Amino acid sequence: MRILLVEDEKVLADTVRRGLSNEGFVVDVTHDGVSGLSAATENAYDVILLDLMLPLKHGYDVLRELRQRRIWTPVLMLTAKDGEYDQTDAFDLGADDYLTKPFSFLVLVARIRALIRRGAPERPVVLALGTLTMDPVNRRVRRGQTLISLTPREYGLLHYLMRRHDQIVSKADILDNVWDSAFEGGDNVVEVYIGYLRRKIDAPFGVQTLATVRGMGYLLSADRIPESASAPQSRE
């Protein structure tokens, strides 16, 4: 099994390389983002271990470019940054796992083996619902050919709704999946952001895809509101 390790801390990189070699892996090592991207593009690997803070090219940019090139090798991020948003950004860009430093070598090996067992099936690049499309790799949203600018929170909300299109989702569901666990505000924030989304993805295009189902939640459908979901509705 062949692994690419992209890590600028040379002592750590050598320690990890020797440890993985002792476990039977073949390990290639690069110490900057440009070299790491080149190696990952030109060679076949079973897993890529990718540091976040790299010279020449940031780890996020390496990951983004790999997925743009449709290279689906499983990527495990190794980083000292452990914030929720750091992890969310990594997964949104196409990371498969995330391990913060300092880490247990045994845990690292276990996660590598889990990724190898899972393999690298080809992943859908674009989510589409009628004329509305979302590219998770580039974080771009379009209605037809028109690019729509969204804030990170609006993007997260739309991503959640698109993955659950034609299903009614409650405010509680949205809070649990779009806002972090430390959020202490009221659920009216969901109504506010639903309104923001409507003004960006619906109103300028003369369509109604994001509906409020009174007493139940919200429903995202393809360019219209299905009659089967015609419970009393209202706009925020």
Q: Describe it for me?
A:
By secondary structure, the chain is an alpha/beta fold. It has 2 domains: 2-118, 3-Layer(aba) Sandwich (Rossmann fold); 127-234, Winged helix-like DNA-binding domain superfamily/Winged helix DNA-binding domain (Arc Repressor Mutant, subunit A), CATH 1.10.10. 39% of the residues lie in helices and 21% in strands. Strands 2-1-3-4-5 form a 5-stranded parallel β-sheet, with helices on both faces. A 4-stranded antiparallel β-sheet has the order 6-7-8-9, covered by helices on one side. Helix 3 (59-68) links the parallel strand 3 (47-51) and strand 4 (75-79). Helix 2 (33-42) runs parallel beside helix 3 and helix 6 (152-163) crosses helix 8. The N and C termini lie far apart (54 Å).
Can you summarize this structure?
The chain has 236 residues and is α/β, with parallel strands linked by helices. It has helices at residues 10-22, 33-42, 59-68, 84-93, 105-118, 152-163, 171-178, 188-202; strands at residues 2-6, 26-30, 47-51, 75-79, 97-100, 127-129, 132-135, 140-143, 146-148, 168-169, 210-213, 217-220, 233-234.
Order of helices and strands: EHEHEHEHEHEEEEHEHHEEE
Low-confidence segments, ≥5 residues, pLDDT <50? 225-236
Look at the helices and sheets and give the structural class: alpha/beta
Total domains, how many? Answer: 2
Write the SSE topology.
Layout: E1 2-6, H1 10-22, E2 26-30, H2 33-42, E3 47-51, H3 59-68, E4 75-79, H4 84-93, E5 97-100, H5 105-118, E6 127-129, E7 132-135, E8 140-143, E9 146-148, H6 152-163, E10 168-169, H7 171-178, H8 188-202, E11 210-213, E12 217-220, E13 233-234
Helix pairs in contact: 2-3, 6-8
